[in-house]
Design a protein that fits this description.
It is built from 10 helices and 4 strands. By secondary structure, the protein is mostly helical. The chain has one domain.
């Protein structure tokens, strides 16, 4: 990726991300219509699926809206609980605050809040949806083990995510993927209640409806992962490019990436949704390392990021 024309790349990527975000509610409505359409064959008397879809539309939109508003309002608290982060004390960490302030002044950006994760692994992430809630969280390890130039590169990378509105987009994608994940899990769990008891026409019909629900929700969840992949992956390259542009020192960021690659896993982080916010997406724990959705990692290989940075400077 060339660093020239960075603003144009950001605008084009924002446009593409907006289209992908529109695809999330479209996918949700498509999933509901598919479920209604295919389950009509299991009903004793037919109902026009189009009419039934229109009748259920207000309920679907209202339930989604409530879910979205709760998640949107509470995302900061959820992320802090999921990562164990707490405010970074200024008097004990003047070095970090000085690096952040210098970058923000140079870029004309409001200063986000700083949090710390008490973990000796090396990682960081930005979060928030507006100037009031924007924050950068750093692990204890990344503060202690990186030089000033390397840490400045990491902080600049997270500032680039904030400036490019990446964190807001990622939080929206996390909320929508969470909806599809919940519905798919609910469908799988419902299958348990149709496996026992007496066999009857009603139970067979209920089982068929649940199987349809499993197929439809699983497919929708799979597509939502692809949409999330499309939103987040390219933005890591842009944030690296933005950090190199801010610091004029791409080699320092490349050096930071090498150190982070050795130990990026924050022990407290178990949610893969939260993990996608990080500077380097920590791999899942060993018992889930072979999970099929690892193929759709939200971050590009760290070796590629280093190679691109080393082409400059």
């Amino acid at each position: 990726m060339e660093y020239v024309g960075l603003d144009r790349q950001i605008r084009r990527n924002n446009t593409n991300s907006l289209l992908l975000l529109i695809a999330f509610p479209a996918l949700l409505l498509g999933m509901c219509y598919a479920f209604i359409y295919f389950t009509q064959g299991q009903a004793e008397y037919g109902t026009d699926p189009n009419l039934l879809f229109l009748q259920s539309l207000p309920v679907v939109l209202a339930a989604t809206g409530i879910w979205f508003l709760i998640a949107w309002a509470g995302h900061s608290s959820f992320i802090r609980m999921a990562t164990g982060s707490k405010p970074l004390e200024r008097m004990e960490n003047k070095r970090v605050y000085n690096l952040l302030e210098n970058l923000c002044i140079a870029q004309g950006m409001p200063q986000p809040r700083l949090f710390i994760i008490e973990d000796e692994s090396l990682n960081a992430f930005a979060s928030g949806i507006d100037q009031r809630s924007y924050s950068i969280s750093l692990s204890r390890g990344i503060i202690n083990k990186l030089s000033d130039e390397e840490l400045e590169g990491v902080i600049a990378h997270e500032l680039a995510h904030i400036r490019n509105r990446d964190v807001r987009l990622l939080i929206i994608s996390i909320i929508f993927v969470g909806i599809f994940s919940f519905l798919a899990e609910l469908a799988f769990r419902s299958l348990r209640f149709t496996g026992g008891g007496r066999r009857s026409k009603d139970s067979k019909g209920s089982g068929a409806i649940i199987l349809i629900a499993i197929v439809v929700t699983a497919l929708a969840y799979f597509i939502s992962l692809l949409l999330r992949f499309g939103i987040s992956r390219h933005r890591e390259y842009l944030a690296d490019a933005g950090a190199a542009d801010m610091t004029k020192n791409p080699q320092a960021l490349a050096s930071a990436l090498r150190k982070v690659a050795v130990d990026p896993a924050i022990e407290a982080v178990e949610s893969r949704d939260v993990a996608q916010l990080f500077f380097d997406n920590p791999k899942p724990s060993s018992h889930t390392s072979a999970s099929w959705d690892n193929m759709f990692a939200t971050h590009p290989p760290i070796e590629k990021r280093i190679a691109l940075l080393e082409q400059f400077g």
